[in-house]
Amino acid sequence: MRVEIPTEALACRTFNCSDHLDDLKVYYAALMKALASSAKACIPARKKKAMVGWLEHVADRKEKAIFWHSMWLSGGQVPSWLHAIMLKTRAEYKRVSRWVVRNQEKLVAGRMADALCENRSRDLWSEIKRVKGSNCRQSNVIDGAVGSHDSCQVFNETYKSLYQSVPSSESELSILYEELKAGIRDKCQSGACYSDQCIRTADVLTAVAKLKPGKSDAIPDLTFYAFQFIDLSAGGFQALDIAWKKRYL
Fold this sequence. Notes:
By secondary structure, the chain is mainly α. It contains eleven helices and two strands, in the order ααααααββααααα. Helix 5 packs antiparallel against helix 6.
């Protein structure tokens, strides 16, 4: 629809002007009507879901009631056999529709039971989704943390602790320690090790490149990012050496 723009009323700068009040009211009403008609034409309307059992029990009776009511109207609305049939079909439609509304839970349970007995898994799960609905409320309190920000922090700390954890036992660590100790004693201390025992810059860079994001040592500052972005050519080895000594001294 076409909306007439009151240019004179819109250009008026007089406070509490009463001369253009009616024009502004008409303009406002026309705008609201245009917006409503545009939304109705462009935005798809979502139909309400039919009740369970409506098609099976009510739809046919509703059509019959509407048909005989139209026949009675076309016959002049006289008290005749058409009037009796109209009253009967209308009463039957209202009775069955009320029964379907009151027994929704039983009808849903019956449909789910039929789907389960006939092994129609797809129909069963679609019915469960219909009963459950799609709205899911988010918990506001998680492990004592209130609000989305604090809950995210709890998740971050829990995930970090879980990601950095390595399942092990004291017996396995003791066995590994004894194996390493025996290897050092039998090979390195006896001169049976490989001749080149120097750790070069390329070896460190290769090891750093294999670190996984998020990994860290016991101290907070010694993380994956400290190794990944350190400049090894500008005193980086000294910084790593200092951090390592602080860790173990």
